[in-house]
C-alpha cells in the first residue's frame, strides 16, 4: 500500500472530523478495496468469518498507523458494517441507507455517482472489480427470478425496499457492468412538500386538486428524473377514498396512499421466451376488474392504444406518464407510439382520439440547480384543421423562477371555474 494512498485517506478523514463515523467508514472502505487489490486476495469467495478477520485486521492497521481516537468497539462495529457491504450489495449498502441520496449510478467498478437534491456528484466509493459488480447484481436478481447474462444483458428489478434497479453488462456496456438505482422514498411526499420545494404554487395545486376531483384524464409529461412518479403519488392522495384504483407498472414504484388499490406489474419472458405479460395485457384485464380509475405508470409502447381506448370508454379520471420535453411534444409522442404498434390509423382520427381521451397535460422539468417543478399545465381542447388546439393554463417563468397563471386565457379561466362540467 503506497504512503500517498494511506496519508491521503487519513487526510480526508481529518477534514471530515473525528466525530464523523460515516466519513471514517467511507475512507476505510476505499482503503480496504485498495488493500484487496494490492494483496491480490479474493475475499468474496471466503466464508464470512474469514472476511470479517481480514477486514478487522485492516481496520486496526489503518487506525493504529494514523493514531485515530477510535475504540475497539467502534472498530469492530465499523468492520462488521464493511463486511456487510463487501458481502451484500457492496458499496451500494451505505448509499442505500443514506436518506439524502436519491439516485445511484454505477459506471463500471471504479466510478459511482450519486444524486443529492437533484444534482449529481461522484462518490469516493468503488467496487473491487467487474466481478464484484456482477456479484451484487446477481444478489439483487436472485430472489426475483430475473436473469442477466450475455444472451439477456439488460434487466429491470426492484430491491426489497422498493427501489428500482436497472442493470446492463458487457458486451453491451463497454466500460464494465452498469447499475442505475432510483431509490424508494420511505416518507411519502405530500402536496405541502411540493409547495415547500417550489414544485408548484398554491393556485396550481388548487387547480390540480379540482381537476382530479372532477375526474379529468391527466397525462404527466417530463424527462427522466423530473418527478413524474412523485406527482402521480401526490395526485392519488386527492382521489376520493371510495374509488377503486388499478395501477399498472413495469416495475412497481407508485406508493398510492389510498384505501382501495389493486397493483399489477408486468412480467418479462422467461429463458425460453415465454410467459411474458405486457402492459397492454394488464390494461385489458384491468377493464374487467371494475376500476373507477386506471393509473398506468408510464406509456412507452403498444399499450398506448389500450390506455387511450380505456380513457375514451368511461374510465374518467385515469392518469399516466410519458417521456417528453413539452406538453405538445407529449401528444406527438403518443402519436409516435401508436405508429410503432403497426396499426394503421389516420392522422386526423388519431389526433381526435388523443384529444377525446386527455383533458390535461402537466409538464415537469428539472432546472440546472436541481429543482424539480411543473413547467406548464395545458388543457387539451381538440383538433382544428388537423392541428392540436391547447390552452396553457399555468406556466413557469424561467427567468424569475415563478409560476404564472394565464388568467387572460378565456378557455383556461372557464376550465378553472368549472373543470369537468362537460362530464
Automatic annotation (TrEMBL):
Coiled-coil stretches noted in the UniProt entry, renumbered to this chain: none
InterPro entries: P-loop_NTPase (IPR027417), T2SS/T4SS_dom (IPR001482), T4SS_GSP_E_ATPase (IPR050921)
GO molecular function: ATP hydrolysis activity
Superkingdom of origin organism: Bacteria
Origin species: Metapseudomonas lalkuanensis
Listed name of the protein: CpaF family protein
Domain Bacterial type II secretion system protein E, first and last residues per copy: 86-366
Pfam families with a match to the protein in the record: T2SSE (PF00437)
Family the entry assigns: Belongs to the GSP E family.
Amino acid at each position: 500500500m503506497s504512503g500517498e494512498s494511506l496519508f491521503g485517506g487519513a487526510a480526508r478523514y481529518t477534514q471530515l472530523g473525528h466525530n464523523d463515523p460515516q466519513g471514517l467508514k467511507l475512507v476505510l472502505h476505499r482503503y480496504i478495496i485498495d488493500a484487496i487489490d494490492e494483496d491480490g486476495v479474493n475475499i468474496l469467495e471466503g466464508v464470512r468469518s474469514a472476511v470479517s478477520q481480514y477486514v478487522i485486521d485492516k481496520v486496526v492497521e489503518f487506525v493504529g498507523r494514523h493514531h485515530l481516537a477510535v475504540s475497539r468497539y467502534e472498530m469492530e462495529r465499523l468492520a462488521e458494517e464493511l463486511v456487510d457491504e463487501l458481502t451484500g450489495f457492496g458499496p451500494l449498502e451505505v448509499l442505500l441507507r443514506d436518506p439524502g441520496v436519491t439516485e445511484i449510478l454505477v459506471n463500471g467498478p471504479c466510478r459511482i455517482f450519486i444524486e443529492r437534491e437533484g444534482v449529481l456528484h461522484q462518490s469516493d466509493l468503488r467496487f473491487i472489480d467487474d466481478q464484484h459488480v456482477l456479484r451484487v447484481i446477481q444478489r439483487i436478481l436472485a430472489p426475483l427470478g430475473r436473469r442477466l447474462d450475455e444472451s439477456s444483458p439488460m434487466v429491470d428489478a426492484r430491491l426489497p425496499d422498493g427501489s428500482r434497479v436497472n442493470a446492463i453488462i458487457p458486451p453491451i456496456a463497454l466500460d464494465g457492468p452498469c447499475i442505475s438505482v432510483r431509490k424508494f422514498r420511505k416518507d411519502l411526499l405530500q402536496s405541502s412538500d411540493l409547495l415547500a420545494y417550489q414544485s408548484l404554487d398554491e393556485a396550481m395545486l388548487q387547480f390540480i386538486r379540482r381537476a382530479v376531483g372532477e375526474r379529468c384524464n391527466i397525462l404527466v409529461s417530463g424527462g427522466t428524473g423530473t418527478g413524474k412518479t412523485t406527482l402521480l403519488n401526490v395526485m392519488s392522495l386527492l382521489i376520493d377514498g371510495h374509488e377503486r384504483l388499478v395501477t399498472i407498472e413495469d416495475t412497481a414504484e407508485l406508493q398510492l396512499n389510498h384505501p382501495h388499490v389493486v397493483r399489477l406489474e408486468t412480467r418479462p419472458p422467461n429463458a425460453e421466451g415465454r410467459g411474458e405479460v405486457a402492459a397492454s395485457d394488464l390494461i385489458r384485464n384491468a377493464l374487467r376488474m371494475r376500476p373507477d380509475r386506471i393509473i398506468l405508470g408510464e406509456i412507452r409502447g403498444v399499450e398506448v392504444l389500450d390506455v387511450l381506448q380505456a380513457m375514451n370508454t368511461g374510465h374518467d379520471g385515469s392518469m399516466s406518464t410519458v417521456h417528453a420535453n413539452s406538453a405538445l411534444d407529449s401528444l406527438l409522442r403518443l402519436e409516435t407510439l401508436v405508429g410503432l404498434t403497426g396499426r394503421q390509423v389516420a392522422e386526423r382520427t388519431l389526433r381526435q382520439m388523443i384529444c377525446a381521451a386527455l383533458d390535461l397535460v402537466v409538464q415537469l422539468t428539472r432546472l440546472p440547480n436541481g429543482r424539480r417543478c411543473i413547467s406548464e399545465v395545458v388543457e387539451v381542447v381538440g383538433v382544428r384543421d388537423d392541428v392540436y388546439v391547447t390552452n396553457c393554463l399555468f406556466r413557469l417563468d424561467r427567468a424569475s423562477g415563478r409560476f404564472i397563471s394565464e388568467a387572460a386565457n378565456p378557455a383556461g379561466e372557464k376550465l378553472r371555474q368549472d373543470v369537468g362540467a362537460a362530464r
